[in-house]
Amino acid sequence: xxxxxxxxxxxxxxxxxxxxxxxxxxxxxxxxxxxxxxxxxxxxxxxxxxxxxxxxxxxxxxxxxxxxxxxxxxxxxxxxxxxxxxxxxxxxxxxxxxxxxxxxxxxxxxxxxxxxxxxxxxxxxxxxxxxxxxxxxxxxxx
Amino acid sequence: xxxxxxxxxxxxxxxxxxxxxxxxxxxxxxxxxxxxxxxxxxxxxxxxxxxxxxxxxxxxxxxxxxxxxxxxxxxxxxxxxxxxxxxxxxxxxxxxxxxxxxxxxxxxxxxxxxxxxxxxxxxxxxxxxxxxxxxxxxxxxx
DNA sequence: AACCAATCTGCTAATGATTTTCAATATAGA
DNA sequence: TCTATATTGAAAATCATTAGCAGATTGGTT
Lengths: 142, 142
Fold this sequence. Notes:
The structure is a homodimer of 142-residue chains.
Chain A: H1 2-16, H2 23-34, H3 41-51, H4 57-69, E1 74-76, E2 84-86, E3 94-97, E4 103-105, E5 117-118, E6 121-133, H5 135-141
Parallel strand pairs in A: 3-6
Antiparallel strand pairs in A: 1-2, 3-4, 5-6
Helix pairs in contact in A: 1-2, 2-3, 2-4, 3-4
The structure holds a DNA duplex (30 and 30 nucleotides).
């Protein structure tokens, strides 16, 4: 579906910035396009390794940084100790499990727009973090 | 003002949990009660060192963990590489500078209450993260 | 189809933040 | 004051992330 389109945009963005299109880069971005759970770099690495067993963790770190600079992915403010990434760069909110750290997109919008100036800060954007217990962790409680 | 009261609650909580009341613990909590900028552990350490030059960074790490377990302080979901702590455990929102990472409390409330169940998550609470450029960084732009 | 310059990659070592280990010390209750 | 137990400081260990470098790939040229 629009995964194809997104990959096309990525190729385009690389060309535009003089970046080379390597299988590793494509693979990293594909993993991010596929997953809904806001994976860590380690998660992405494990996924990419299935296809390219020789890929290096350092390359995955470098690639997510590149993708972020291209504006194709975002860091997600997180709970645990590792950074998580999100290929959905449109405005949306997150649902965070306080037990296991799972992060999902919230499927509704809050129709609220912040003032452009709050307490002297020049405001860019906002995001809502909703904390709770995910269905999987609830099941474990019994 | 109610810093006294909060310290009293802390003493009480320690007694209740069989934790000893040490000058280091009190000092760490006092720093957190005083500061409005959601300091990192390193920040707290530097502040505590003024009073107790021999304090160890490890002790500060241990103490913030203890305080968090007691429910007296909270980790703040963060942007940069170090965890930041907040002695304000009531519901409130944060204003984050995307340049320098400064975090301030937002002085207004959003009168919105999330549903108690969202996409299967049992919702506890939420917080709003507003990103922008703080006055100090704006001044540096000139 | 082979060439070349520039960019990338994988490996390894370095860094920064946080946690653990452990012997010595301080606290709280008897 | 005495003692059991929790806590501390200092140093080593761990985890996530970044940097350095030599060899391999990419993409534009012949």
